[in-house]
Design a protein that fits this description.
Layout (H helix, E strand, L loop, with lengths): L4 H6 L5 H8 L3 H18 L3 E4 L1 E6 L25 H13 L4 E6 L5 H17 L5 E5 L5 H9 L2 E5 L7 H6 L9 H13 L3 E4 L2 E2 L6 H14 L3 E6 L18 H18 L4 E4 L1 H6 L3 H7 L4 E2 L25 H14 L3 E2 L8 H6 L1
Parallel strand pairs: 1-10, 1-11, 2-3, 3-4, 4-5, 5-6, 6-8, 7-8, 8-9
Helix pairs in contact: 2-9, 3-10, 4-5, 9-10
The structure holds 5'-deoxyadenosine (5AD) and iron/sulfur cluster.
Length: about 350
């Protein structure tokens, strides 16, 4: 049988070689792919986009990933941790505006003090907002005990990007030490699942040394792991990182965005009931990137609720957008864009991953 887009899209199980063909599609073919993903999203999760208010809790990080602007060895940024009151204010904003959900993200820290602070904070957030919010954590690799304590204190979802599913590529993008192993990252994902969380992961797209086969493997990895949520977006170079040196090896910004949207669309097709985020990195490289991702299957967006004065210090990559925008401006702009695209916002709904609910 000839391998046309239509043929592939009709298959019950789309295997790696077909995924690679979809990733290589030019404009006309991708439009067919996007339309199919759009229709599936409409049928499986509805045309609703859920807000997760993003709180960048601390930029202190004990790791040195080669791609990341807030890596420990970068002395350019002032390191900060929000006070509990600052977090509570952002959480109240989310609750008052019916976001129904927040994400607490930070660089990776593994001290007992950090783990205790988060546990206390979770309880305070629930009591300040009458448990109206579902809380997602994105705080890196931790021990099983810590994951369990945070879960008991009221966090229900956890995001931990695998970054790349190919272990050899992972080794190229991280220091060769015990704090940066692909195995530990995988083990953490399993612990999170075991601890009861809805588990999210993700990858960067368009990294130096990354191939189309790697990206197809990333999508197969999400499916094989039976993940509940995915956040992925283009890699964006940052001058203060070791990977900057290889910036001539990466695809153009436009190609990285297109590739990211194709990844979203294929993922919606192979895992129709999961939650998929339209990430900030997509918008960084193309002002319409996030809307295109929403059309092609994404159903989650993470408006930034970090107090504006800290934002310049949480620059994982260059040209991060909206660093000066107050939460209210962001909310109004997003609402306008999402409505213009014909979707509505899932105000007041937790928007849990249907995939997770169906598995339970
Ligand atoms: N470009 C794009 N994404 C990045 N991240 C870190 N550095 C970069 C970069 N230069 C992503 C990683 C990490 C998440 C918090 O941000 O995937 O998991
Ligand atoms: Fe730290 Fe995460 Fe950046 Fe790695 S990607 S340096 S763990 S903040």
């Amino acid at each position: 049988m000839v391998r046309t887009v239509e043929n592939i899209l009709q298959k019950k199980y789309i295997a790696k070689d077909d995924i690679m063909m979809l990733l290589a599609l030019k404009k006309a073919g991708s439009e067919e792919l996007f339309k199919r993903a759009h229709d599936l999203k409409t049928a499986m999760v509805g045309r609703k986009v859920f807000f997760r208010g993003l709180i960048e809790y601390s930029n202190i990080c004990t790791k040195n990933c080669f791609y990341c602007g807030i890596r420990m060895d970068n002395g350019r940024y002032q390191r900060y941790t929000l006070s509990d009151e600052e977090v509570l204010e952002a959480a109240r904003y989310a609750s008052d505006n019916n976001f129904a959900s927040i994400v607490i993200q930070s660089g990776e820290q593994s001290s007992k003090a950090f783990s205790n602070s988060i546990e206390n904070l979770l309880r305070k957030i629930h009591s300040a907002t009458n448990s109206s919010l579902h809380i997602t954590l994105s705080l890196g690799e931790q021990t099983e005990e810590t994951y369990k304590r945070w879960y008991s204190a009221g966090a229900h979802r956890y995001l931990l990007r695998i970054e790349v599913s190919n272990p050899a590529l992972y080794a190229k993008l991280h220091p060769a030490d015990q704090r940066h192993t692909h195995l530990a990252r995988l083990a953490s994902l399993s612990l999170l699942r075991k601890s009861g969380f809805q588990v999210g992961t993700g990858v960067m797209i368009g990294l130096p040394f990354q191939t189309m086969a790697d990206l197809a493997d990333d999508l197969c990895f999400f499916r094989d792991f039976d993940i509940d949520m995915v956040g992925m977006g283009p890699y964006i170079e940052h001058e203060d990182t070791p990977l900057w040196e290889y910036r001539n090896l990466i695809p153009s910004a436009a190609e990285r965005v297109q590739l990211s949207i194709k990844m979203v669309a294929i993922l919606r097709i192979i895992m129709p009931d999961i939650n998929i985020a339209a990430t900030t990195a997509m918008q960084t490289l193309d002002p319409r990137g996030r809307e295109q991702a929403i059309y092609a299957g994404a159903n989650v967006i993470m408006p930034n609720l970090t107090p504006v004065k800290y934002r310049d210090n949480y620059l994982l990559y260059e040209n991060k957008p909206n660093v000066k925008d107050e939460p209210e401006e962001t909310r109004i702009a997003l609402e306008k864009h999402i409505r213009a695209a014909g979707d509505e916002i899932g105000y007041g709904e937790w928007g849990d991953s249907r995939h997770f609910i169906n598995r339970e």
